[in-house]
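Entry:
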Amino acid sequence: MFKIIGADGKEYGPVTAKQLKQWLAEGRVNQQTKVLPEGATEWRTLAEIPEFAAALPIRPPATPAMAAGVVTAADRVRGPAVGLIVTAVLGFVANVFGLILNLFAAGLGTAAARTNPEFERLFSMFSGTVGVVSSLVGIVVSALVLYGALKMKKLEKHGWAITASILALIPCTSPCCLAGIPIGIWALVVLSKPEVKQAFN
């Protein structure tokens, strides 16, 4: 017969070994539950009593350690993930503005271009079909970076997080030009850490 200390801190029992094994199987007690065998004066954990060894899990529950690992990984990815999100949003806004400018304001630029040859050269380079295509590519890249960053923040889809970091690194496709380079490097360094990789699902 045994007495036990419940999860609420109260003493229960006496109960039989059979009942304790059943409670162990049901998850109502665990190997850390304090028990007092009949005739004993010292409380021990269930794991310390040989007759319950076969009923215990093969390995001790690692929930607290695992939870700590996930929290640590989540803390590590939070900074670069937020950086990628900000980069993607800024790039998206800039490219949408550029697309609108190219589609609806070309006439205004043409008039101004006639008065300034340098402006005419720049305007012809960034307006028209090239400007529209460039803006559309920028919008798509920004959306991909945003998606990967959001997944990274939730510790999901490690491959997408890597993709978002690489896209942020490339100056021609980066959603926020050169600002994406340090953030992309930071994200890749964090994502390459073994403990961070293991935390992804």
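Confidence is low (pLDDT under 50) at residues 58-62, 65-69.
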